[in-house]
Design a protein that fits this description.
Length: 428
C-alpha cells in the first residue's frame, strides 16, 4: 500500500504555493510598515507553557494538543498557537529591556488535533502579531486594522469585524458568577461538554457551536453590563479610535474567544460566505499572560490569522492579486555543442535574475517547443549549429510569434528583450 499524507494535513502544490508566497510577502510588507519585526520560535515547547498560558480548561489543552514525552522524559507539545511562545521568548530573551512596546510578528506551522474541514487542518499556518508592554487602546485598534490592511491588499472584501470586552480579574468574577447561576438553573439542557464548563469556566459556554446550547443563550447577562470603570473606559476608547479611522464593526457581547488569557478587548474578523466556520482571524488583549508565564506583569495585545482560511476566502472570489508566475525564456537546443552553449547562456541569464528553462529530457526540438508552451514561457530562443557558429539567434515571443535577432554574447540585450516580454510590449 502506498504511503499517504496524515489526515488533517495538506500538500501545497506548485500551482498553489505561489499564492501563499504572494500573501506572505504582503504580510511582511504591511508588518514592516507598522513597525513589527519577525520573531521565530521553536515548533515544539514544554507542555507547561501552553497549560499555563492557554488554560487547562480550554478545548485546545484538554483535547487538541499534540503532546509527547521526549528521551529526557520531558513533556513536549507541538505549538498549537503562537502567543504563548512569543511571551516565553519575550521573557527568556529579555526583550522587555529594549524599546517598548516590543512589537513582533510570526508566521509558521501550528498543530491541533481537531476534526478536519474546509480550510481547517491539523497542521495549519498561522500569522500573528503581538505588542507587549503597553496598555494603550490604540494598540488594540492597531491589531484590528493591521489584518484588515492585509486582507485588502490581497483583494479580500465583505468581511465583518466583531468586537467585545470580557473585562479583567477585577470585574470578571462577578460576571462569571452571574453566568454560572443562569446556566445551573438549566444545566441538563446543555451539551455534555458545556455541562462540565459551567462549573469550571462558564464563559466557555458562550463559545459553544452546538445549536441547542446557542438557543439557551438568548437572555443571558451581558458582559458589557458588568465591566468595571477601567475596562469600560478602555472599551469606549477602542470604539472611539475605530470610529475615527472609519473602521466598521459590530459589538458582539457573546464573543469571548477560545483562550483563558484574554482580558478586556477581544475581536474576530469573519467572512459570512464561509459558513459556520467563518472566522478568518481574531485576537485581543492579554494583560495577565506575561505574569502567568513567570515574568513581571506586562500589558499585551495581539491577533492571529489562519492563512488557509484567508486563501479559502480568496478562492471564492475573483482577484487580480494572484498572477501565476511564468518563465521568462526557454532555451531550446539540439544536443552536443548547442546544449553546451544553451547551458552557459542559461547560467548567465539566471545570474541576472531571469527565470530560464532548459530541456532535461533529451526531447526533439518540436517536443521542446511544446514544453515551452505548456510552461507558459514568455519567450523562446532556439540554439542550433548555425546559431553557435554565428553567436546569434532568434528570440521568439510565444504569444504572438514575433521574433527579433539577439547576440548570444550580449546578455544585456536579452535582458532588455525580457523586460518587454514581461510588460507585453512589442519586441522590435
Amino acid at each position: 500500500m502506498s504511503v499517504t499524507r496524515p489526515r488533517g494535513t495538506n500538500d501545497v502544490l506548485p500551482d498553489q504555493s505561489y499564492k501563499w508566497q504572494i500573501v506572505e510577502a504582503k504580510i511582511r510588507e504591511i508588518c514592516h510598515n507598522f513597525g513589527y519585526q519577525e520573531l521565530r520560535t521553536p515548533i515544539f515547547e514544554h507542555t507547561e507553557l501552553f497549560e499555563r498560558g492557554i488554560g487547562e480548561t480550554t478545548d485546545i489543552v484538554e483535547k487538541e494538543m499534540y503532546t509527547f514525552i521526549d528521551r529526557g522524559n520531558r513533556s513536549m507539545t507541538l505549538r498549537p498557537e503562537g502567543t504563548a511562545p512569543v511571551v516565553r521568548a519575550f521573557l527568556e530573551n529579555k526583550l522587555y529591556a529594549q524599546a517598548m512596546p516590543a512589537k513582533v510578528y510570526y508566521l509558521g506551522a501550528m498543530f491541533r488535533y481537531e476534526r478536519p474541514q474546509a480550510g481547517r487542518y491539523r497542521q495549519f499556518t498561522q500569522f500573528g502579531v503581538e505588542a507587549l508592554g503597553s496598555s494603550d487602546p490604540m494598540l488594540d485598534v492597531e491589531m484590528i486594522t493591521l489584518p484588515i490592511k492585509v486582507y485588502q491588499a490581497c483583494g479580500l472584501e465583505g468581511f465583518k469585524v466583531h468586537i467585545n470586552s470580557i473585562g479583567c480579574p477585577d470585574c470578571r468574577p462577578a460576571y462569571r458568577k452571574a453566568l454560572q447561576d443562569k446556566f445551573l438553573a438549566q444545566q441538563e439542557a446543555f451539551c455534555m461538554t458545556c455541562q462540565g464548563r459551567i462549573e469550571r469556566n462558564p464563559l466557555r459556554v458562550l463559545d459553544c457551536k452546538v445549536k441547542e446550547c446557542q438557543s439557551l443563550l438568548a437572555d443571558i447577562p451581558l458582559v458589557t453590563e458588568s465591566l468595571c470603570k477601567n475596562c469600560g473606559d478602555h472599551f469606549a476608547q477602542v470604539r472611539t479610535y475605530l470610529d475615527q479611522l472609519d473602521v466598521k464593526y459590530v459589538i458582539n457581547p457573546k464573543l469571548v474567544r477560545g483562550f483563558d488569557y484574554y482580558t478586556k478587548t477581544v475581536f474576530e474578523i469573519i467572512v459570512p460566505t464561509l459558513g459556520s466556520q467563518n472566522a478568518i482571524g481574531g485576537g485581543g488583549r492579554y494583560d495577565g499572560l506575561v505574569a502567568e508565564c513567570g515574568g513581571e506583569p506586562q500589558p499585551a495585545v495581539g491577533f492571529a490569522v489562519g492563512l488557509e482560511r484567508v486563501l479559502l476566502s480568496l478562492a471564492q472570489k475573483e482577484t487580480t492579486v494572484f498572477q501565476a508566475p511564468k518563465p521568462d525564456l526557454f532555451l531550446a537546443q539540439f544536443g552536443g555543442a548547442t546544449k553546451d552553449v544553451a547551458i552557459a547562456l542559461a547560467h548567465k541569464l539566471r545570474d541576472q535574475g531571469l527565470w530560464v528553462e532548459l530541456d532535461y529530457m533529451g526531447k526533439s526540438l518540436r517536443a521542446q517547443m511544446k514544453v515551452a508552451n505548456k510552461l507558459n514561457c514568455l519567450g523562446v530562443i532556439v540554439i542550433g549549429e548555425d546559431e553557435v557558429a554565428q553567436n546569434r539567434a532568434k528570440l521568439r515571443k510565444m504569444s504572438t510569434s514575433e521574433e527579433i535577432e539577439i547576440d548570444l554574447n550580449h546578455v544585456e540585450q536579452v535582458e532588455q528583450a525580457v523586460v518587454k516580454l514581461r510588460e507585453g510590449q512589442v519586441l522590435a
